[in-house]
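Data deposition worksheet. Section B asks for the primary sequence of the deposited chain exactly as it was used as input, without tags or linkers unless they were present during the calculation. Section C holds the resulting structure in token form. Section D is free text for depositor observations; keep each observation to a single sentence. Incomplete worksheets are returned to the depositor.
Section A, Depositor: J.P.
Section B:
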Amino acid sequence: MKRRTKIVVLGSALLLTAGAASAATASDAPRQREAAALTGTAKLYRSAGDDITFSFDAHLAAKDKADPMKATGTFRFSHYLNGSGARAEVAVDCLVTGGKVAVVSGVITESDLPGAEGKRVGVTVHDLGRHDRLGYSWASTGRPGEGDEPPKCVSSAPFEKVKKGTGDFTVVPWQPEL
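Section C:
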């Protein structure tokens, strides 16, 4: 009986080892780097205490490296002060990055801001580690839904500061063949 138990244990150990080896081989396959990306969440700093949050999940696949207008993903933003404000979700339609700077644009798909749905907005992020900066197209064009819409991949300079300790944006630089 002892002998049979040993064989079963040994057989199980061999099966586990073989399974682990094949799993490691599958996960070790080289993955192609995406062409560009902007990810992360952070709050902006405002001395008046405004609650302003931006979240990004924007990507340009390696196969689309030559066309930043094939970017996909979403970004969200909200701005509240003393219980009033609005939020929006945006479908990405363009992403261009250079070094640690990203410009992303898209069309608002959902919002509680009157007239904003269906309007294009753009955002610029400068990835500076713990001191990121951000800018947005409506700084010069007017509130989404009231002002002019920017074209794809257009925004303002990153003039806003990220609130200390609230997050960190990550920019994957675009490296097109020129």
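Section D:
The mean pLDDT is 85.
The helical segments are 2-27, 138-141.
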